[in-house]
Fold each of these.
Amino acid sequence: MLSRCFQIVTLVTLAVIHHCTCANVLMITMGGTKSHKIPFWELARGLIPRGHNITFINAFLSDFYLEGLEEITPSSYVVYVRNFTNWDLVGARIKGEEPVPFVDMIKFGYEACDVLLSDSETKDFLRSGLKFDLLVLDGAYPECAMGFVHFYGAPFIYINTVGMYMGSLSTAGNPTLYSVTPFLARPFSDTMNFIQRVQNFGFYMVANIMHSVMTRGKLQDIVRQYFGPDVPGIYDMSRNVSFILQNGHPVLTYPRPFLPNVAEIACLHCKPAKKLPEVKPA
Ligand SMILES: *[C@@H]1O[C@H](CO)[C@@H](O)[C@H](O)[C@H]1NC(C)=O
Ligand SMILES: *[C@@H]1O[C@H](CO)[C@@H](O)[C@H](O)[C@H]1NC(C)=O
Ligand SMILES: *[C@@H]1O[C@H](CO)[C@@H](O)[C@H](O)[C@H]1NC(C)=O
């Protein structure tokens, strides 16, 4: 009798613990290419079996059904991104050109934010009364999504999808050593000569200034227009990121100093290798 009672108490306790530790997670990537979604999907695939519900806002229509994952793809945002980012990233590299002109990156930043936040599907979603326990944002471009962080008043983490991009890591306090950390759009490695280090420094400076001009000059106002005038400074908010899943690895993105709240997760989406077919010698 006692052991039966103990069994029931244990089951009820476990059920309560299970219920209490399940969370509603909101993921947002505003990346201009579909590849940004892949590490988010992998994280979702790991969280759903543990009882968490995932809502995922992005610009690319979902192409499979996964129980526990709901993708929100506001239509004007989908159309805008598809039209804007018909980039030929590989062809430009082969021709030795910049894959995406700096000016276009800046323009994409604030236009995409305005299109997403003004879409009626986004507005309906915000009005639906859903509550979230955690937001997972794309570290490649989390600034616009800070509006959602303020709106839901929940903690947030990043997946830094672009492993070579240092901007968000740097804002969160991670040192970016210009002498050994190559700028993402330069073919430098962690061993640079003096001239390359100077060029590397120059690229970081220009990128940081343009980022700051876009964020303070444009995004801040757009986010406040949709989420209210009391939204704090975007950089003040993004500095508070709780944890960063960094899509890199020393082998791929060079050794770097990271704070303890950064975990390198390159190859999160990798599957075990298949065996190669055997070739019989002729
Ligand atoms: C997740 O979604 C299911 C089905 O909509 C719901 O029954 C469950 O309560 C949700 N879980 C949480 C933590 O809200
Ligand atoms: C598509 O992009 C082009 C050039 O970037 C722009 O002129 C045009 O207005 C855009 N069309 C739509 C439907 O957004
Ligand atoms: C950042 O976090 C600190 C400590 O929790 C808090 O006092 C501060 O208000 C936060 N800043 C913003 C802009 O959210």
Amino acid sequence: MLSRRALILALLFVFCEIHAKDVQECEHVAHQNYVCREIENFEQLCHYIQADWQNIKVINEHTAIENDDEPLPKLSTLRQLDLSQSGGLTLGRRGFSDFTSLQRLNLSHCQLEELQAKQFDNNAALISLDVSHNDLLRVERDLLRQMPNLVHANFSNNLIANVEMDAFKDLKYLEFLDLTTNEQENITLGSNANLRYLSISNNNIKNFKWCRLRGLPQLQELHLHSNWLEVLDASIFNVLPQLRVLNVSNNNIYEIQRNLFGGPGPDRTPLLRLLDYSSNNVKVLDNQVFSRLQQLETLNLWFNQISMISPTAFRGLVNLQSLQLQGNKICVLPDEVFANLTALQLLDLSKNNIRQLGANVFGSWVLRKLSYLDLSNNHIEELHPLALSSLPFLQQLRLRRNKLISLDIRMIAPLRRLRVLTLSENHLMELDQDLLTCLDKLTELEIHNNRLTFLPALEEPLLSQLRRISIEGNPWQCPCLDELTNWLHTNQVNYARAASGYFSGRKPLCIVTPMEHCVRDLQLVRAHGFVESYEQI
Ligand SMILES: *[C@@H]1O[C@H](CO)[C@@H](O)[C@H](O)[C@H]1NC(C)=O
Ligand SMILES: *[C@@H]1O[C@H](CO)[C@@H](O)[C@H](O)[C@H]1NC(C)=O
Ligand SMILES: *[C@@H]1O[C@H](CO)[C@@H](O)[C@H](O)[C@H]1NC(C)=O
Ligand SMILES: *[C@@H]1O[C@H](CO)[C@@H](O)[C@H](O)[C@H]1NC(C)=O
Ligand SMILES: *[C@@H]1O[C@H](CO)[C@@H](O)[C@H](O)[C@H]1NC(C)=O
């Protein structure tokens, strides 16, 4: 006898089957574009197809799809077929042989374990093949020979350990090849005359030499991130003279050799624009290590172990726009290390161990493009009054979470374009009137968690552009805080941050003092021990 539960399941099953049959249909979604539902095999698809249908997407919720062994000539008119939501594909002997005009085929998420050459007889029109998210184990030359006009091939997210040597060699038009997230240990794909984009990221590649990529003379973009690379050998541009983007992020590379950037000949400048070396184990940046990369615009070096930087490490990077060094172990920045980086727009030095910033770190030439400087999460106690004198075009200066006791007016005064200034989580006791006068373009100011007990009386035109400020976590004298918040309300400056405990009443926003007015005198504040009394709460 059937148990009650089995009976319900059986009924449910029958219901679903009927339901599935009920909704089988094709609907027109755009010009020559159709979505067909609950299609079990290519013969059913054939039954719907009209002569002018070009693109079909199959969406199955209750069934998978399989092909038949009978010829289905009506399929020969289709240009695009998307089976990525077909619920799984079982390919018989004929495979896609009847789709003789097919240009784009999406087999993503089809639970395929293999593709055979004979299943792609007659698919010479194919220009895009997406077989991502399947269980393929290998890529063979015979298969790809059936698709001589392929431009775009996506094999990502499979279990591919073996790519047959020269598998892609005969594909004269291939530009994009994605082998991300597979199981390759060695790069064996051999040559291809036209390939522009190659990703072998997130595989198991360990032993690697550039010569493995010899035979890809047009390669412009190479992604090798998230492998097990430890060393990159010399002269990359001898092998890949057209390379513009190189991503080797998230490997175990422990050095950047100066001769890495050799080639493609002594008088030809490498074309590299983007170099992503983030999340590796690089410890040292040597003399002039990047000096040949005159076209480089983006250099990502975050989350390495960099503690030593040569004063000439960035020499020659005349087109560099973005330099990201956050999350390293930098203690000292040598004089002139960023000098003459005249194209630089963004510099991130946060999350290091920097203790001080000297007068000459940015050199004496004005860096007119530099608008964003992040020095937060360091141990900076002292900024030389002239440290930022080459950066009058800064718009954002981030100094959050350091050990600053005071800010020198000589440092701030030249920064007339500053819009965002973060000073929170420092030890600042005072921001004086002259300093605030210089910040007349400021729209955002963070000063929470310092040792401020008062601000100067905020009269016009002080901070006239301010839109947002964070103030909590300071030992404000209550009368001073009242004045401040009144001013903030009047000027419609946002200051309450709901996520912070201070505004929900869990932590005090100010201290009650014996005085009824706001004491704006640091000596008196010290004498009364306001800061200390707040810190004991
Ligand atoms: C294939 O289908 C998947 C899922 O629907 C989609 O994300 C992907 O972009 C498609 N591939 C191409 C090349 O259009
Ligand atoms: C390949 O497919 C994956 C997964 O659908 C997608 O994220 C990736 O962008 C595709 N690659 C290319 C080069 O289009
Ligand atoms: C990868 O190459 C190395 C060195 O050439 C070799 O020892 C290793 O067996 C190769 N691995 C595979 C899976 O072919
Ligand atoms: C490089 O790869 C990392 C993954 O490790 C990725 O997060 C990053 O966006 C990639 N960079 C570029 C420029 O594509
Ligand atoms: C910066 O450029 C100027 C002018 O070309 C030159 O005199 C100076 O030596 C350079 N400084 C550095 C550190 O490269």
Amino acid sequence: MKNDMSRAADSQHQSPKLKSKLMARIKPQALLIQSKKKKGPTRISITTIVMCNLIIALIALSLVATYRYWSRRSPDQSGSDLSTLEDIGGFVKKYDLPGYAILNTSKGPIMVELFKDGSPEVVDRFLDLCQKGHFKGMPFSHVIKHYVIKGGGSQGLGAAEDWISKGKLRSQLVTRPKHEAFMLGTTKNRLDDKGFELVITTAPIPDLNDKLIVFGRVIKGEDVVQEIEEVDTDEHYRPKSSVGITGVILKREI
Ligand SMILES: *[C@@H]1O[C@H](CO)[C@@H](O)[C@H](O)[C@H]1NC(C)=O
């Protein structure tokens, strides 16, 4: 630079032709200096631009992320809201579960208490079937005096007849702790929709829990049960005249 300046100073004492020649030689260097001077701010501005771009990109990314988060969350949230409701529903259900059912029959109403705590699964199943109207119009397919009345399930007694006849015999022979009469139960391994059998005992039966899943008991309408028990049957315990359940009313309390 010093060199350039001295040269420039020298150039004042030189001919205009040489001066212009020298100027032409200086010019690129001056331009270089200028460009160097320019490059400083240019480099800063590039950095600034890059930074700005980065910030914009970050903002955009965060916006996209936020949008995605919320758009993903909103159905999730409604889902979790639903599940919360369901949970609350389940919670409420556990406590508000109908504890009683009135079986309307062609002979009158039979009120039963459901053992929600003792047999929760079967009670759930029973309530579910009640809500589906499964028992509406269900005839008592088998009536065995001083033993049980049974509705639903298969038309043939099958295994039930077996345990009924055996049980009946045994109940006469064995003096074991007996279940009270008027218990509400269903035959084991028949919890599917079609096979769900409703059994009401009309006498104390020993080993009842071996044969039935007891899930309730009659608390009102024992006389109705006995009336049904009195209907004439054929040799296969099938009532000669139709008697059945006309409807079920579920009650939380009585
Ligand atoms: C049950 O019987 C009562 C009285 O007979 C009647 O008012 C009610 O509507 C019946 N309900 C069903 C579900 O059958």
